[in-house]
Amino acid sequence: MKQPVITCLDLEGVLTPEIWLAVADKTGIADLKVTTRDIPDYDELMQLRLKILADHQVRIADIRNVVAELRPLAGGSAFLDWLRTRCQVIILSDTFYDLVAPLMEQLHYPTIFCHTLDIDEEGCIRNYHLRQADQKRHAVAALKNLKFRVLAAGDSYNDISMLKEADAGVLFCPPDLIKSEFPQFSVVKSYSELQDEFCRVGGLVP
User: Fold this and answer.
1) Looking at 10, 18, 155, 159, which residue is catalytic?
2) Helix residue ranges per DSSP H, the chain
3) In the predicted model, what is the mean pLDDT of residues 60-88?
4) What domains are there in the chain, each with its CATH number?
5) 61 vs 15: CA distance, rounded Å
6) 153-to-26, 68, 122, 125 alpha-carbon distances in Å
7) Angstrom distance (rounded) from CA 137 to CA 160
8) Average confidence (pLDDT) over 53-62
9) What's the alpha-carbon Rg for the chain, to the nearest Å?
10) Catalytic annotation present for 134
11) What is the pLDDT of residues 108-142, one digit of tens each?
12) Which of 50, 131, 132, 179 is the most buried (most CB within 10 A)?
């Protein structure tokens, strides 16, 4: 029996801009430009971000205002629409439900698995809570256990375990360091190339 296909996509860097880079640009806080492309340890990265936010008194409302101005990457929404007519799609992201609503609306409300923030009464972000550690890999493993053939695409260190667990993993516009460090994955540089690759490895209709 032919397995049904489900595709798992990272959000930031694959479909949308990086939220923290946008916050860094808006606030002028250069230290917030560090992302999962730079620091593999997600807890280390988030602890750094929380300290920076506290030091500069950046509140959740400030970040939400930045997100509200963001738009999906050029072609990202159309690509997602194309993919959703051919297989089931789940966004697996290490962002937070507290932030992404404006982007989800623009992407026509795909299913997304991500995390939550601990926000105090003054709107300060005090902590973060992972829905599950290494959630991207666990989600892919669970879907495979449900007898799906899983395709996946991401661009950062925090996507690597997901790509390794998937039946076919693809790096989308990764930095050169990640591309050279993980040569086992196909690399694409555009949505048209990603469509072609998913058709090739997943048997999707072009």
Assistant:
1) 10
2) 19-27, 42-55, 60-69, 76-84, 101-106, 135-145, 160-165, 176-181, 191-202
3) 97
4) 5-202 (3.90.1470.10)
5) 23
6) 28, 25, 37, 30
7) 9
8) 96
9) 17
10) no
11) 999 999 999 999 999 999 999 999 999 999 999 99
12) 50
- Cβ within 8 Å of residue 163, ≥6 positions away: 152, 153, 154, 169, 170, 171, 182, 185
What one-character DSSP code corresponds to residue 186?
Answer: E
Record the pTM: 0.94
Sign of the dihedral defined by the CA atoms of residues 95, 99, 104, 109, in that order: positive
Q: Is 12 a catalytic residue?
A: yes
Catalytic residue among 12, 18, 94, 165: 12
Residue 1, pLDDT > 80, answer no
Residue with the two structure tokens 């555009």: 190
What does the pLDDT look like over 177-206, one tens digit per residue? 999 999 999 999 999 999 999 999 999 999
Would you say 167 and 22 are in contact if contact means Cβ atoms under 8 Å apart? Answer: no
Reduced to 3 states, what is the DSSP secondary structure of residue 38? coil
Interhelix angle 60-69/19-27, rounded to 10 degrees, is 110
CA 205 – CA 72 distance, rounded (Å): 24
